[in-house]
Each structure stands twice: as structure tokens, then as C-alpha cells.
Write a structure and sequence with these properties.
about 475 residues, alpha/beta, two-stranded parallel ribbon, 17 helices
Length: about 475
């Protein structure tokens, strides 16, 4: 009798678990592959699966999404005026590459991403050099400093940054910081106390104090941008922390890519920051008069054409993913990709495979070690898929590769925060610079080839020699690709 009652209780629990699983997964709009992945987790791991779902599957509130969607894109008039004046200096302007024309139209339609001409770009692949220059620019700031980072760690370099910002705030410079609570491992209230006392403002993206959603894995602000006085901007892959300058025993040297921009593309970065700021800030922190953050600029500091493109769960367009696909489909000769996580969805993978079969040379570079085990094994699985189609895949052995770069035909390139994975396509808020400049693309390609010298070329034979357990982990991890 007791045994029968026990099995009845188990059966009822399983039925309730199944019903709640369906409600939890279907109550909000999700892609079919994501639905099946979450159902697999919730049905195979009763109770535990719901804890995982809360951490990684709960979606951002519709109220917060509404706040983001209704933000006004600022500064467009000033950008247009600057560009109109600069077009008079036609000799210094590059022609638009053939492979970029449709990409330009795509971003203008999907993200209102204005094409800015005459920008000057500096590439940083070393964290210490990037932070040395950023700190130098912050020290020289006269009017305002706007920072937006996924991670600002409570460590040596994090405190160096906050101390410097505090000093500038004390001088009367406006200082605003947006950080992601999850990416920064919490709020660190003591870390920002002196900055706030000096008049600076630091806020967690789209949430306020002591919220359980700090633990949520998904829908994070993964952008990494800085704007100084509306004249200098940074965008790329480096966060703020000691590990990004190579001071981590686990990761060793940190290989990333970041850009410093002078020109009207900085105003596009400013526009993105202000939209995120006003969606996050409250009360007196809101900015309504923003004209002063978009200075006139009638000179041409460089020759690069740039579109700043952002994407996130506040918009179903998936602009950066679309940009990657457009780049792959328009490539005629070569595609070079650096990414720490290679977990493409079906359309992205198929676009790459079509490019390979069409004779385009595709090169992919991934790290030599995981920072997320399931993610890395899934990356290995998809790397094999590309190798099988004819791509060349490298494993970077010179440290940890965190660079997010795509180059096509030595003409067009993108650098930013978006990885080549489903998380960056759909689950996080990302920002990339799409750059139309053959010289810049060639410089990135040179860096790629320098990294090849520190890499191992992966082959199907390499993967075939792996243990049965490793092969199982790769195939098993791939099942969870839509939610990794």
C-alpha cells in the first residue's frame, strides 16, 4: 500500500512538473529551438530545472523593455549636419566598398544606424595599452565622461578607474557609469561611494538596488563603450578588470580587440549610451537636455566610414546577427572570424557553409581553453562542422582569446561586444562598430595572421583522436545551444 502511494505521489509530482514546465516556457515568446531546449531541462531535471530556468531562462520584464523601446535616438540632427559639412572635403573620403552597399542599407533600415565618414580609428589588442590610453583620455576630459561596461570588477584596475573618475567628478566633470550587476559580480556599493559623493553617478543597467534578478544569466548589458567629451569613443571586447591586463593565473595573457575612435561615430556611441542611460536612470538622473553632448565637428580626423549598430532583446530584428549574415553572404574571397564562443544558430551556420561551398576562404579562430565548459564543448562541436565543410579552424594558444572580430575580403570589418553565438544574437544587449575601410580591415587581418603563428590548426583527425567521453560532451553540449 505504501509503495503504491509512493508511486502515485511521484506520478502526480511529474504531472504537475510537466504542466508548470509548459506554462513557464510558453508564457513568453521564444524561438522553437529554445522552447525544446528548455523543455528538455525542465522535464529531465524536476525542481532543479526550475532553479536553472530562473537563473538563465527568465526574461526581462515588459515594463523595462518598453522603457528601452520608447527611448528617443538623440544626436541624429547634429551628426547629419556634421556629415553634410564634411562631404565638401570629398578628396579625403573613401568610396563605399562594393561588399558594403547592402550592409549599409540593412543597418539604416533595421537600426537607424547612420553612416559616419572621416573617422580615425586606433586598434588595441593588448589590455594594458588600451587602459593606459583610456585613462589618459579620461584625465584630459573637460566636460563629461560616459562609460558603459558589462564588467567593472572590484579589483586593482577597477579601483584605479573609479578613483580616476572620482577625481574628475571632483573637478566638475560630469561622470556617468552604467554597469551590469551580473557581469560585475554584484553592485560593490563601497566601490562607488566616493564617486557618488563627488557628484558622479553609477547605476546598474535596467535595475535598482538589491534585486534577485541580479542572478539572472540572460538579458545582460554586454556592451563595452566609453565616450569622453563627445569627441573620443571606445568600443570593443575589453571589460574592466585585472584579468583583462593578463593578471589571471587561469587565463594568462588576454587577447582581445578594442577600438578608439575620433569622429562622428563617437556621436553614434553617445546616442546609444544616452538611450541606455534614460532607460536605466530615475528621477533627477534622467537627461532631457542632451544637445551639449553632441558637439559640432566639421573636420575630418581620418578616413574610415563607420556604422555603430546595437541589438538586444528589446528588438526582434537581431541587427548584429543580420549584419554577420549579410557580411558572409556578400563575401567574394575571404571571411576571417575571431570569437571566444562559436555557437551559431541554423541560419548563420548555413550562410557560412554556403560561402565555403561557393569558394570563399573561411578562417575561424577560437580559444584553447574554456571559461564556460558547456559553451566551449559546443564551440568545438560547431568548429568540426565548419572543418567538415572546408573551413580552416585555429585554436589560439597564446593565452585566452576574447576578440570578437569579423573581416570580409579585406574591405569590411566589425569589432564589438557580440560573440558568434545565440546568446549575443538574442539574449544580451550588444554593440558593434561596422567599419568600411580596406586599410583598417587589412590591419585586422594582419593581427589575425600574427595570432595564427601562436595557434594550432585543428583538423578532423585531431577531433577523431579525442576520447569517447569528450565527443559525448561536445554532442551533449550542442543540445543546449539555444540557451547557452
Amino acid at each position: 500500500m505504501l509503495r503504491t502511494s509512493f508511486w502515485i505521489v511521484i506520478l502526480i509530482a511529474l504531472v504537475i512538473n510537466t504542466i508548470i514546465s509548459f506554462i513557464a516556457v510558453f508564457r513568453q515568446k521564444r524561438e522553437i529551438a529554445t522552447i525544446w531546449a528548455w523543455m528538455l531541462v525542465l522535464l529531465l531535471l524536476p525542481v532543479v530545472g526550475f532553479a536553472i530556468f530562473f537563473l538563465a531562462g527568465s526574461r526581462i520584464s515588459s515594463k523595462k523593455i518598453f522603457r528601452l523601446r520608447t527611448q528617443e535616438q538623440r544626436g541624429l540632427d547634429q551628426i547629419a549636419l556634421n556629415q553634410k559639412k564634411q562631404l565638401q572635403d570629398i578628396e579625403n573620403l573613401l568610396p563605399i566598398p562594393y561588399s558594403a552597399t547592402e550592409l549599409l542599407k540593412l543597418f539604416l533600415s533595421s537600426d537607424r544606424a547612420v553612416l559616419t565618414r572621416g573617422n580615425k580609428i586606433t586598434i588595441f589588442s593588448d589590455g594594458q595599452k588600451k587602459f593606459d590610453k583610456l585613462f589618459s583620455d579620461i584625465k584630459a576630459a573637460k566636460e563629461h565622461i560616459h562609460l558603459e561596461y558589462f564588467s567593472i570588477f572590484d579589483d586593482k584596475i577597477g579601483h584605479q578607474l573609479v578613483d580616476l573618475l572620482t577625481e574628475k567628478a571632483s573637478e566638475g566633470v560630469e561622470v556617468r557609469v552604467i554597469y551590469d550587476q551580473f557581469g560585475s559580480h554584484g553592485q560593490h556599493p563601497k566601490m562607488y561611494r566616493k564617486l557618488r559623493a563627488a557628484g558622479g553617478v553609477a547605476v546598474p543597467f535596467l535595475m535598482r538596488r538589491f534585486q534577485l534578478l541580479t542572478l539572472r544569466f540572460n538579458f545582460r548589458n554586454h556592451r563595452k563603450i566609453a565616450i569622453i567629451d563627445g569627441k573620443i569613443g571606445y568600443i570593443g571586447g575589453f571589460n574592466v578588470g585585472d584579468q583583462y591586463v593578463g593578471e589571471s593565473k587561469k587565463f594568462g595573457y588576454w587577447r582581445d580587440t578594442h577600438t578608439r575612435i575620433i569622429g562622428d561615430a563617437v556621436l553614434s556611441l553617445q546616442s546609444r549610451f544616452l538611450m541606455d542611460w534614460n532607460a536605466t536612470a530615475e528621477g533627477r538622473e534622467l537627461l532631457t537636455q542632451t544637445t551639449k553632448y553632441f558637439p559640432e565637428n566639421f573636420s575630418l580626423p581620418g578616413k574610415s566610414m563607420i556604422q555603430i549598430v546595437s541589438s538586444g532583446p528589446d528588438d526582434d530584428m537581431k541587427q548584429i546577427k543580420q549584419g554577420y549574415m549579410r557580411m558572409f553572404s556578400s563575401a567574394r574571397e575571404s571571411i576571417s572570424i575571431q570569437t571566444p564562443y562559436f555557437i551559431p544558430d541554423g541560419p548563420v551556420l548555413e550562410t557560412l557553409e554556403v560561402a565555403i561551398l561557393s569558394g570563399v576562404k573561411v578562417k575561424l579562430m577560437i580559444p584553447n581553453q574554456p571559461d564556460h565548459p558547456l559553451v566551449y564543448r559546443a564551440t568545438e562541436y560547431y568548429a568540426q562542422e565548419l572543418i567538415d565543410f572546408g573551413a580552416t579552424v585555429y585554436r589560439y594558444d597564446g593565452g585566452f582569446l576574447h576578440s570578437k572580430v569579423v573581416i570580409i575580403d579585406n574591405e569590411v570589418a566589425t569589432v564589438g561586444s557580440a560573440n558568434m553565438d545565440i546568446r549575443s544574437f538574442s539574449l544580451n544587449f550588444e554593440g558593434n562598430a561596422f567599419i568600411y575601410d580596406p586599410d583598417f580591415a587589412a590591419d585586422l587581418e594582419d593581427l589575425f595572421e600574427q595570432d595564427v603563428l601562436k595557434s594550432t590548426k585543428l583538423t578532423m583527425e585531431y577531433f577523431e583522436k579525442q576520447s569517447a567521453w569528450m565527443k559525448f560532451k561536445q554532442k551533449f553540449s550542442r543540445l543546449f545551444s539555444p540557451i547557452l
